[in-house]
């Protein structure tokens, strides 16, 4: 089955991973800007990173017939440095016209601090001013519920947001309903250690349905698996779910969300040479 991975950090993966993803049926990747494993010290470090996301990764992906899209921001872990964050925010418009940029992300909260909240809101304002979609990171583990509520409250206070163009990622059992009930898209991230396992993600699908719900692998610097979406496909098949429902979750839903951007162009995967899972 062909699929789209809506959140996959390929800068942390080898080129061999692109080949494996293609063989598993991946036809497109959306890569949000995120932490590099260390805090960057200057706006020029982010400028070089954005060039990697807009120039290098699309070429690596194209070798295997995968379309690469990206999002730009300074991530929540580094947003505590307000001065640097504002320099990065001022620089981001330089890249918004690049062919593979879908919007602003992954913005959000890490430890739910006042500085993080300030920079989150300034990112949202930047997205609204430039008519960009938004992809949001919610905190990990014990901070997730509080951080998700803070994010939803801040988004609710902003009158310029089109909720259908916002995806709130890393939802779990205790946050998914609040995100969907507020009118946003929700993303489930499949990790072997933290966040959702494929089995838990299928539990969530069975609990809330398939509307405005996506699934991704993230595949970043920590313990992660870039082929986690096919694992979800297999778990859904094991439980007897219809192929039409599986396709909706792993292909049609992300296609619908991303297609709100004029930059998102993806040919019919039926015409693509590749290995069908």
Automatic annotation (TrEMBL):
Native organism taxonomy: Bacteria, Pseudomonadati, Planctomycetota, Planctomycetia, Pirellulales
Record's protein name: TatD related DNase
Superkingdom of this protein's organism: Bacteria
Record bears the keyword Hydrolase: yes
PANTHER family linked to this entry: HYDROLASE TATD (PTHR42658)
Keywords: Hydrolase, Metal-binding
Stored InterPro entries: Metal_Hydrolase, TatD-like, UCP005295
Gene3D superfamilies on file: Metal-dependent hydrolases
One Gene Ontology term of the molecular function aspect: metal ion binding
Similarity comment text for this entry: Belongs to the metallo-dependent hydrolases superfamily.
């Amino acid at each position: 089955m062909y699929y789209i991975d809506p959140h996959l950090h390929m800068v942390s993966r080898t080129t061999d991973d692109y080949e494996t993803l293609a063989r598993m049926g991946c036809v497109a990747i959306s890569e949000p800007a995120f932490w590099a494993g260390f805090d960057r010290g200057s706006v020029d470090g982010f400028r070089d990173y954005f060039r990697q996301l807009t120039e290098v990764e699309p070429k690596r992906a194209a070798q295997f017939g995968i379309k690469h899209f990206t999002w730009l921001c300074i991530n929540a872990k580094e947003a505590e440095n307000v001065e640097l964050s504002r320099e990065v925010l001022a620089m981001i418009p330089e890249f918004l016209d690049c062919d593979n940029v879908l919007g602003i992300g992954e913005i959000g909260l890490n430890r739910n601090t006042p500085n993080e909240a300030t920079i989150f809101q300034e990112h949202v304002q930047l997205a609204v001013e430039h008519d960009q979609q938004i992809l949001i990171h919610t905190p990990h583990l014990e901070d997730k519920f509080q951080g998700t509520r803070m994010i939803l409250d801040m988004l609710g206070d902003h009158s310029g947001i089109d909720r259908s163009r916002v995806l709130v990622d890393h939802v779990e059992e205790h946050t998914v309903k609040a995100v969907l009930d507020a009118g946003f898209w929700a993303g489930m991230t499949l990790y072997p250690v933290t966040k959702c396992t494929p089995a838990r993600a299928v539990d969530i699908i069975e609990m809330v349905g398939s509307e405005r719900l996506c699934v991704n692998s993230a595949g970043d610097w920590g313990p992660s698996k870039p082929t986690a979406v096919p694992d979800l496909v297999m778990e859904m098949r094991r439980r007897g779910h219809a192929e039409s429902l599986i396709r909706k979750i792993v292909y049609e839903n992300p296609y619908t969300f991303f297609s709100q951007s004029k930059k998102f162009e993806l040919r019919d995967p039926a015409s693509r040479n590749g290995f069908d899972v």
